[in-house]
Write a structure and sequence with these properties.
The chain has about 900 residues and is α+β, with helices and mostly antiparallel strands. It folds into 4 domains: about 170 residues, Calcium-transporting ATPase, cytoplasmic transduction domain A, CATH 2.70.150.10; about 300 residues, Up-down Bundle (Calcium-transporting ATPase, transmembrane domain), CATH 1.20.1110; about 160 residues, Rossmann fold (3-Layer(aba) Sandwich); about 160 residues, Calcium-transporting ATPase, cytoplasmic domain N. Helices cover about 50% and strands about 15% of the residues. The strands form 4 sheets. Strands 10, 11, 12, 15, 16, 17, 18, 19, 20 and 21 form a 10-stranded mixed beta sheet that branches. An 8-stranded mixed beta sheet has the order 8-27-26-25-9-22-24-23, sandwiched between helices. Strands 1, 2, 3, 4, 5, 6 and 7 form a 7-stranded antiparallel beta sheet that branches. Strand 10 and strand 11 form a beta hairpin. Helix 5 runs antiparallel to helix 6. The two termini are about 60 Å apart. The N terminus is likely disordered.
Amino acid sequence: MSKEERTQNYFSLQVEQVLENFKVDPEQGLNEEEVRRRIEQHGPNRIREAKTRSVWRILIEQFKSMVIIVLVIAGAVAFFFQHLAEGIAIVAVLMVNAGIGFVTEWKAVRSMEALSRLGEESIRVRRNGEERDVLVERLVPGDIIVLESGDLAPADVRLIESNEVRVNEAVLTGESVPVLKQTEPVDADAPLAERKCMLYRGTTVNEGSGEGVVTATGMKTELGHISELAESAEKEITPLQKRLDQLGRRLAWITLALAAAVAGLGLIAGQETTKMIKTAIALGVAAIPEGLPIVATIALARGMYLMARRNALINKLPAVETLGATRIIFTDKTGTLTENQMTLRRIATPVGDFEIDEDKKEIQGEKGSDHPLLHRIIEVGVLCNNASLLDTDGDREPEEEQGDPTETALLRAGLFFEMDRKDLLGEKPEVREVPFDSDLMMMATFHQGRQGIEVNVKGAPGRVLEACSRLAGEKDDGDRPLEDGDRQAWVQRAEALAGEGLRILAVADKIIENSEIKPYENLRFLGLVGLLDPPREEVRQSIEQCREAGIRVVMVTGDQPATAAAIARQTQIVLNNESPSVIHGSELKDPDAMSTEDRRRVIETAVFARVSPEQKLHLIKLMQEEGETVAMTGDGVNDAPALKKADIGIAMGMRGTDAARQAADMILRDDAFSSIVAAVQQGRIIFDNIRKSVMFMLCTNVAEVIAVAAASVAGGFTGLPLPLLPLQILYLNVVTDVFPALALGMGKGEPDIMKRKPRPRNEPILTKAHWGAIGGWAVLVAVCVLGALSTAFYLLGFEQRQAVTASFLTLAFGKLWFVFNLRSAGSTMFKNDIVRNPYVAGSIVLCVILLLAAVYVPVLSNILETQDPSFRGWLLLLGMSLIPFIWGQGLRFVRDRQKDRA
């Protein structure tokens, strides 16, 4: 649906034209017959509910991985050939993996309730010349609605009357300050954030009252359009899911090829047909790392738990790892990079400037903190004010704020200067108030003072300066005339302060004898007040961490370009001290319509202001087309489509809407950017751990295949038995694979992990170098296993069962020692992530106990066909099992020395 179809640019038409278009008299409203006709034409005023993930869908999704599918096939084959033990073991692995994933994701399911709640509420409507409360669901285009402070806009509305209406549009535009509305039309090309005569469904009337005509209902509203975008936004499967599927497909082909090769070679060598078929099936199962799905799921679930402790809640398990691959973070400004609370920071007066830090309780200025002009400016800001701070426990610390954030900031500044508004009104009672005028851009209050009636004025700097004739001096009798040159200088000063990200107000006063005198004449200019929504203290450090980690941080906000640029400088999103390049939302187009130069400019820009929901989608699409893994933060209903489209959508938990939280992959409970960085670090650790686990399982599993394949060929000519029996293979895969692999998945990560560059978007879990290493290590381990078998069988004269036990235990213990070969480059033998991981030591102890049980517990020994290898056998198998470990440590030492020399 196009913008024209949704709104037909009613914001660019005069009120009379809009009313004529809907054929409605604002004094009478629609009649009931016309309402019924329009409901039939347009339908009820409802937002279509988003489809939620059912319990069955969540369960089915646990079996979509290619590795899982391969395991299902392997289990079916095992049952078909009546290998019940193997089949039952595989089914158990599948059930455990599905159970962990299902329970974790089911707990995180959220419903899309935010877009449907409005239908149950009512709004004041004028119909048949009478005002009545009507269910929001029954509104139709052309209805005349009456708006009061606190109302939620029930549809898209063109204002026809406005009495200082201020609207909180944060959920749609991201604008951090309530917007003053008017009835005059705006330009037809004005972005949503600048359509001052429109109210959009889901926004809130903070102050004032007015009337409007409904221009769109249901799915034809801007909110409905956003809902459609959220539904249609294609969610890419996570990088981890892609990589696991790639690995699963490769393992499927490798498994089939190995099973066929072993069976063929054995038959050619004269081995018994039934025996070789059973062995081929066992090896096919052995080649698949049954523990991989469990390891990946538990590693992700543990990461989910650790992130929750750092205030990051994950909706879907694979999203945990996606964070580790993130290369670009699109972040909003208000509340994520900033504190989301206006505070007084700067006061510029004719006698000097003052810096105020309320947190540190410091006031800096050449004239000192007790200068009377400074205190007079604060007093004007407190008295000329319509906001309130509620103190519920009597400690003078405000616990709840009501009103414009700028005015509540002035009241808090008053408390900092020990000026409570109630106390001041007791000393100087209010005689009269002139409300804020959107044309004059000023407000005034009259108070009975000791010397007469005091007029306090605050407003836009240019307008206040025009109403001033005097400039305040050191003392009350030190005022001097305000010349045109002075006015121009102060206007420029105000513009310079605004460029620093400050919200600027001018304050003035005068003393009169009659309260009926006009307020905006012959004023005394007192100075400029600069307020700031300051950056969070930890943001600069977090952004620096991102920079070191190779992650770009890009600000995407609904705020003004000047404010966005200032915060970008203060948070070090841009490093130079000059004003950063800012792209206005109106300049963003669909990537398909962009020229090469436009794409390059957008890609290189770090600050985007006045951005709409569709434009956020364009940004994400563009970056994903460039091969980037993108994270996007958001809090409003307008952010839902972008959160869904991004590789990792991050919603705000404190100020975020239900719609944003439902669409996101991750929710920040503290709304802090630093929590995103901590989550990225955990995501990287998880991927490293999963990679180590996969390397461990494949190296030793392929070694099993190579050893059995070689023995099956050699045995036909030499009589050498197979080094492993089918149930021994499965026992090793369940015991010595799963427990150490799980322990590797629980590692805390290397200290320098956030100093590495992000992985390429298309990098698989195992690169060509990893596959080469797997082949090399597998051959070495297989040689050691065959060496132990040959030595025991031929040289030591062991009987077949005892010799096979020696080779079985050689492989088993070789797997346990091999864990330590997976330490990161640059680490030492005794100082690395694996040695520091207590779960690794615990898993090795457990595996040793289970291996001893396999030999010395009679029932288990009979099932596995094992036998005490004797003292000589133990010396042989332990010595052979240590060879890969010794070789690996030596190789790492040599490579590290060569790297140091280079």
